[in-house]
Amino acid sequence: MVLAAAGLARLGRLGEAHELLPFEVMLPAPGQGALAIQAVEGSEAARLAGAIDDPGTSRAVHAERALLRRLGGGCLSALGAYAIVDGDDLMLEAVVLDEAGATVIRAQARGLHDADIVEEVAASLESQGASRLLTRPDTSLAGLRIMVTRADSQAAALVEALEARGATTVRCPVIAIEPIAVDPAVLRDLARYDWVVLTSANGVDRLRDLLREAHRDFPADLKVAAIGPETAARAREAGMPPTLVPQRYIAEELADALSAAMSPGARILLARAAGARDVLPEQLRTRGAQVDVLETYRAVPPADVRPGLAACLPNVDLVTFTSSSTVRHFVDAMPGPVPDQVRVACIGPITAQTARELGLRVDIIAQEYTTRGLVDAIVRSRTPIPA
User: What is the pLDDT of residues 175-209, one digit of tens each?
Assistant: First the structure.
C-alpha cells in the first residue's frame, strides 16, 4: 500500500512507514500534501484564509497544477510533479508514465518566471512523447450537440477539444474580427514604453500583423504582460515572450499583478479590442502608471449571423460563450428566446455577468478562464464525481 507521506506525518505516524520513496523513484501528484481552503472572494472567510496562506506553498502548487492543465492531464493521469521555491527561483520537476509504468519520461527546470518554467517543462515532456502517453479515449461529452460562437479564425481549438471528448460541434460564429488602422508613429515609438499589455490572442495577432506591415521588430527589452496562458502562448509564438501572467485571468487580477511589478510612473501600452472594459487602464492609472490605449481590432457580427442562428439554435443542447462580445452579438441576432432545453456555458464570470444582464440563464461557468477550463466545466456538469 502506498500512502501520502505528508498525511502520515500530520497524523504522527510517519515512523510506521516501511519505506519512503525518494523523488528519483516516485514524484507526487500535482498539489499533493498541500491543504487548500476555499472561500467566497471578498468575504471575511477569504480574508482570514489569506492571513495563513504560505506564499511558497501557493507558488509551488500553482505551478504544479498549471503543468497538469498545460499537458491536459487530470486526476487519473499518470503524471507526477513537484515544485519548490529556492530563494527567488522556482524549481519544477515532473514525470509522465504510460499505464503499465514501462515508459517513464522526466523533465525539470529552474528560473524566476513561473509561467516560463511550466512551459519549459511541458515542452520538454511533450518532445519526449508525453501527449501520446496521456491521451485516453474520452467520451464524456458523447451525445451532446454544442454550439461554438467564436469567430471562425479562433474556433478550432475549442471545436477540437469538444470533439475529442465525443461532442458534436456546431459552428455558428456570432462575431468576426475586423482590424482597426493605427497611427504608424505608435509602432515606431514602442521602445519608449516599459510594458505592453495583451488581453487576448486576437490582440497578439493584430499587433504582430501591424509590426510586420510596418517592417518593424518587437523591442527586445520591452516587458510584456498577458492576461492568461492562451494569450501568453500566442505572444511567445509571435516573438513577444511575456514577463507576467496573473494567477486569475481577468482584468482586475492583471491590474493587481502589474501594479506590483511595475516601477512608479511606468509607461504602459494596452493593445486591445474596441469597446473593451476600461477597468484595466483605470486601475493602472490610479496606481501611478501612464497608460495609452491602442485599439487594434473590433468584434463585429458576420453578415449571415441571423439566419445562421435561426438554423442552428433549435438543434443544439448547449451554447458556449468565450467573451462578452460573443454574448452581446448573440443576443442581438437571436431569432427568439433561447429554448428552455438549451444550456449556456461561459468561459468566466465577466462573460457570465454579461449574459445574465442580457437576460440569458447561465448554467455553467468555467473555474479557469481558458478554452480548456470551459471544456472541463462542461465535462464536470455531466460527471457525478469531479475529475
Answer: 999 999 999 889 999 999 999 999 998 999 999 99
pTM higher than 0.90, yes or no? no
Q: Phi and psi dihedrals of 224, rounded to 5?
A: -120, 135
Closest CA to 249 of 363, 367, 165, 79: 367
**Domain 178-299 belongs to what architecture?**
3-Layer(aba) Sandwich (3.40)
Contact 232, 245 (CB under 8 A): yes
For 81-116, what is each residue's pLDDT tens digit?
999 999 999 999 999 988 777 889 999 999 999 999
Could you list the beta-strand ranges (E) of the chain: 79-86, 89-97, 104-111, 145-148, 168-171, 176-179, 195-198, 223-226, 267-273, 290-300, 318-321, 343-346, 364-365
Query: How many angstroms separate the CA atoms of 133 and 77, rounded?
Result: 9
Class of domain 18-134: alpha beta
Question: End-to-end alpha-carbon separation of the chain, Å?
Answer: 23
Say yes or no: do domains 145-175+301-382 and 178-299 share a fold. yes
Query: Are 93 and 27 spatial neighbours (Cβ–Cβ below 8 Å)?
Result: yes
Q: What is the pLDDT of residues 33-86, one digit of tens each?
A: 788 888 777 788 888 888 898 999 999 999 999 999 898 877 667 899 999 999
Residue type, 160: E
Q: Is it true that domain 145-175+301-382 has CATH number 3.40.50.10090?
A: yes
| CA distances for 34 relative to 39, 41, 50, 56, 62, angstroms | 16, 20, 15, 11, 11
